[in-house]
Amino acid sequence: MESILLKIKRLYPEMGSSERKIADWLTANFQEIIGLSINELATRCGCGEATIVRFSRRLGLSGYQELKLKIAQESANTAQGGVLGVESTDSCYDIFNKRIRDIAVALENTKTVLSPDEIEKAANVIKDARRIVIFGLGNSASIAVDAQHKFLRAGLDAIAYCDNHMQAIAASHLHKGDVAIGVSHSGASIDVVDALKTARETGATTICITNFGESPINEHSDIVLNTRSDETKYTILAMSSRIAQLAIFDAIYTYIVMHSNKAAVRAIKDAETALHSKKYIQN
Amino acid sequence: MESILLKIKRLYPEMGSSERKIADWLTANFQEIIGLSINELATRCGCGEATIVRFSRRLGLSGYQELKLKIAQESANTAQGGVLGVESTDSCYDIFNKRIRDIAVALENTKTVLSPDEIEKAANVIKDARRIVIFGLGNSASIAVDAQHKFLRAGLDAIAYCDNHMQAIAASHLHKGDVAIGVSHSGASIDVVDALKTARETGATTICITNFGESPINEHSDIVLNTRSDETKYTILAMSSRIAQLAIFDAIYTYIVMHSNKAAVRAIKDAETALHSKKYIQN
DNA sequence: AAGATATTTTGAAAATTTTTTTCAAAAATA
DNA sequence: TATTTTTGAAAAAAATTTTCAAAATATCTT
User: Fold this and answer.
1) Which of A263, B62, B144, B153 is the most buried (most CB within 10 A)?
2) Which among B31, B74, B93 is the top mutation candidate for probing chain A, defined by the most A β-carbons within 10 Å of its own β-carbon?
3) Which CATH number characterizes residue B227's domain?
4) CB-based contact, B15 to chain A, within 8 Å
5) Looking at residue B45, which CATH number applies to its domain?
6) Cβ of residue A65 lies below 7 Å from strand C
7) Distance (Å) from the C-alpha of residue B46 to the closest C-alpha of chain A?
8) How far is the first Cα of chain A from the last one, in angstroms, to the nearest whole number?
9) B67–A contact, CB cutoff 8 A
10) Domain limits at A67?
């Protein structure tokens, strides 16, 4: 949807001099309109009220009221400034707000480094895999578990291994047609990298999900899915990159459901109905 | 800044029955107010116009006009796009892009229903807890595991139980000074609700993380942390609400680290250095 | 427990403010 | 100069806010 400012810019040539005064004032004082009545604005712009209504109509709105409402909506997004670091005086709610900013930024960045081709390939390989094993340790363990959960719901044969011994064993027992997925933010987790290497040697297809850049895990991966987050503080948790990882798995899961044969879709419906008896209320 | 919805929730007890009708209607039809005049809203709520003005004033606003403007601002993110449906012709990358939109919207919405007071209370209770148990089943299991992982890193005594029998047992063995956290998007997962109820009976402090609205789990929780996502499609995965849950836990974790005594901070540093030997490269 | 009194809550109607429409004058264009 | 377009003051309409008395509720008294 075209924004108000953009519309103003586009329609500017068609306006008369009085309407242009309104356009100019609004361009300079966008949000300020929210607190003004139509005649206050008319005074500021040096024009009549009727001209303001006409101006609003030109933008495709019903009148001044709607103009104000629309600008209120649009300025809500713009208003936020860009500070990141958590201060020791921050309330927990403050920290939450900063975190969700981080997440939004990381997701946008990931969009720029995630290859459309690679993720499409990954989704299809997983969809048709005989067996899927997912490796994640420590911080990435919950991502692996989450992915397992999703794939199981889609009727796939998936297991997450979050223990380095189990990973090594599982990797060595794979075959051609199987898929091994390694999750590691740094791409340098010894055990996960080794497990992926082993998996590849068995003939399995290997996929990694890791932060953008050179890393050991890429060398052992047939398909590389990159995230991108510029975390500097508390990087151990790599919170926002993990959200990006989750989003990638979610997209793959959704894709598989959409492209699956009836049986797999039924598996999802089955999973949902199975849950109903476990709820006090029926959603 | 406290959101309108939060203010409504907080001031609800002080309202008379007519004002509550407005509060209820608004909670259910938040954005819809933008298109309504005061008497249209009065009709819908079954009350007089004056009551709506009084209601607005109670929220600290000058009147109905400002209420409408404020809601327009807050619903800006929600209003755009809404829930983006995934089409069967979408590429995996397309789906990813739609997903990250959903996530951004859910996070913004959660900001408006998450009570600053409650999350602050939760963080402090957890920080000083003798023992923390976290309950999550199915979809919420990975969130519980993630939270456990974070709290362990902060040097806290935390365990996640993702099995209904273990949850029941663990809950019954708590004491005053312990904290039980239940994670459930619907707030209606029988086993988690029961475990939280049991936990409370032992004298433990109970916290729930659930989607905004009435739900069984609230009744057994001393502290309620709300998320908000309007998922209609693929609601079984409740993806975006889970991201919001993760962000809440992350904020609490970060807050605890910031406010902990030296020992706990050292515990984090310890955890980080312990990981270094497990990496091929040093970050 | 019943009744009386005070307080609070409420909405209809009046008052006010805001927005929109009308229309003739001014400006621009042909 | 004639025609069209643009404009704003004033009128009309609509929306919002205020006032105030009735209704509901709570508190006190006996």
Assistant:
1) B144
2) B93
3) 3.40.50.10490
4) no
5) 1.10.10.10
6) yes
7) 24
8) 32
9) no
10) 4-81
| Residues 202-261 (A) with a CB less than 8 A from some CB of B | 215-216, 234-237, 239, 242-243, 246-248, 250-255, 257-259
Proximity of residue B109 CB to strand C below 7 A = no
Phi, psi of B74 (to 5 degrees): -70, -30
By Cβ distance, the residue of B104, B137, B275 closest to A104 is B104
Same domain, B145 and B244: yes
pLDDT in tens, B65-100: 999 999 998 877 654 444 456 777 889 998 898 888
Contact A84/B at CB under 8 A: no
Distance separating alpha carbons of residues A131 and A121, to the nearest angstrom: 16
Q: How far apart are the first and last CA of chain B?
A: 37
Are B271 and B186 members of one domain?
A: yes
Instruction: Give the minimum alpha-carbon distance from B202 to chain A in angstroms, rounded to a whole number.
Output: 23
Phi, psi of A72 (to 5 degrees): -60, -45
B16 is a domain residue: yes
The set of residues, in sequence order, having a beta carbon less than 8 Å from that of B117 and lying 6+ positions away, is none
The model's pTM is: 0.75
Q: Is B273 helix (H, G, I), strand (E, B) or coil?
A: helix
| Res B53: pLDDT | 94
What value does the mean pLDDT of chain B take?
Answer: 86
- Whether residues A117 and A75 share a domain: the answer is no
Identify whether A26 is part of a domain: yes
B234: left (phi over 0), alpha (psi -120 to 50) or beta: left
Select from B219, B210, B223, B9 the least CA-distant residue to B124: B223
Nucleotides of strand C within 7 Å of the protein's CB atoms: 8-14, 17-23, 28
- Interhelix angle A116-127/A239-259, nearest 10 degrees: 60
Whole-angstrom distance, CA of residue A35 vs CA of residue B69: 9
**What would the pLDDT profile of B137-180 be if each residue is shown by its tens digit?**
987 888 998 899 889 888 899 999 999 999 999 999 999 999 99
The reply to whether A134 and A248 lie within a common domain is: yes
Contact status of B96 with chain A (Cβ, < 8 Å):
yes
Do A212 and A170 lie in a common domain? yes
Domains in chain B, number: 2
Q: Are residues B132 and B67 in the same domain?
A: no
* Nearest residue (CA) to C1' of C11: B48
Going by DSSP bridges, is the β-strand pair A205-211/A178-183 parallel, antiparallel, or unpaired?
parallel
Alpha-carbon span A55 to A38, nearest angstrom? 12
With left for phi above 0 and alpha for psi between -120 and 50, is residue A2 left, alpha or beta?
beta
Q: Are residues A147 and A226 in the same domain?
A: yes
Q: Is the CB of A34 under 7 A from strand C?
A: no
- Residue A94 belongs to some domain of the structure: no
Give yes or no for a contact between B137 and B189, defined as CB atoms under 8 angstroms apart: yes
Task: Note whether A103 contacts B103, CB cutoff 8 Å.
Answer: yes
Dihedral of alpha carbons A11, A17, A22, A24, sign: positive
Structural domain contains residue A131: yes
Q: Kindly report the average pLDDT of chain A as a whole number.
A: 85
Q: Which two tokens stand for residue A137?
A: 């340790």
Q: What is the pLDDT of residue B98?
A: 86
Instruction: Give the distance, in angstroms, between residue A28 CA and nucleotide D6 C1'.
Output: 24
